[in-house]
Amino acid sequence: MDRKLSKHLQAIAGLIIIFGIVLTALFAPAIAPHDPTEIDLARKFLPPSEDYPLGTDQLGRCELSRLIFGARHSLAISLPILSILAIIGLTIGTFGASIGGKTDRILTMVCDIFVSFPSLIIAVAVIGILGNGLENLSLAVVMAMWAWFTRTVHAYTMVEMGKDYVLAARICGCGPAKLIIRHLIPNILPQFFVYLSTGVASSILMVSSFAFLGLGLPHGVSEWGAMLNEARSSLYSHPSLLIYPGSCILVTAAGFNLFGEALRDTLLPEEETI
Amino acid sequence: MGQYIARRLFHLCIVLAGISVICFLLLAFSGKDPAEYIARRADINASGQQIDAIRSEMGLDQPLVERYFEWIVNLIRGKPGNSLYSGRPIATDFAQYFPVTFSLVALAMLWVVILGIPIGLLSARFRDSVADHAIRGVTLLGMCIPTFWQGFLLLLAFAIRIPLYTVMPQPGIRGYVLPSLALGLPIVCSLIRLYRSALLSQLSADYVQYAKARGLSAWRILVRHVMRNALPPIITLFCQYLGYLIAGSAVVESVFSLNGIGTYLISCVLASDSVSVASCMLVIATVFVVSNLLGDVANGLLCPWMVRESNG
Q: Taking CB atoms and an 8 Å limit, are A228 and B288 in contact across chains?
């Protein structure tokens, strides 16, 4: 009982963080005290004041407003990427596992090959070849992670395929498409949802590390990773400019991970926590 | 066991061939013409004729399949050509930058072993104690910390507040202490969690009950019996992370101004030097695949029954 309660607390803590960030992202223009792109070199590196609650950065932009708009960038990049990944994973994974045979073997092999590249390397190469830009960045992350999603769905589906209800459905004349949509996907959805919720954290981290390396996003965007990169030259003089965006990434990732972990323990109690 | 290794080696060859094709295709369809780049570097107003001359000199006018085999043969012979970014042979660049990354990764892995395994053991031994909860909380946070930010925090703490270290890289092993810690800590955290759960699932096994009945102490059971049986997932994870670390080192190298393969790769990407990017990718992916194989073989030697099961 004690365990269950702590799990509930964990889930609630995660949810509060997630809601906070989603609301911040949605209402960023209303909350932010200033325009995050407004450059004023006369006001650079101002200490926190009533007008600028967290001070200003190296170009005199309001740090708090930039952080608030950063939530927008993080979510607006990661969530569409994840939905694409979810669709690709669910389609190819269930298709391969339910059809079996040679097609499945080839699909598994292709996944094996993609999984052999560390994902950062694929993404870096894709951006290197296609050039910077939001679409290319998203494509890069999708290319880097689709095989992992497909593989996971494939493994879940293989377990389901061995169960009697699949056999029963087939005996009743259920076709492959109906089997996937009506029977397989609903049954793997809880596990997949858990996997997805931890995927949010890793894709947020991935996008921000690209932004930090100067890959993918246009210059001056108030993405948290990019802000860290811009602030690195003032490591000595103004370390707080490095601390704020980093803490934002940390809190966001932690929120999704806390929630995902609690979700796993509730939905899949048989799997031990990792 | 021999059969298992042979099968895995065969599988490895197919995966490597696939990897090399992907790298080559990225190279071929990068939309940038290396011949033009080289010609323009020598002469800004290079004519179409000059570019064509360089193209046929570099063999770029050959069919795709021939170019692929030529590229592979040259790579295997250790002559992947010249880097457009540095203007030197890629092999020379690799010889300069890879050792830095390897030292960084090796030291990071050392952190993983000396921190991860003992803390994982403690956490499992004192399950649900305050210490266990604290360890689980800290490791969950540790998994969410962006590596680059952690690098800066370490620099802030140990180079600025307590000046044990300098922001600029130091020669020798001292220079790798903080970067490797920054690189290794997230993995230490996930390893602790994985090891703890692997140990706990072993602790509920029958042989542990039997050992308890024989009157063995909890520590003795944990160290002599359970530790080894819980190792396979850790070895798999460890070997997987080897490849990730090489890739992830780009970020840490950038924070600590180290010149390793990661920063080299990023510079090549920014300079759209697709030849070097493809070669880098191939080398890193090969290291990654081989280390995964080694991990599985080590598991097979440690727990032969797992191989028998997978041979089905």
A: no
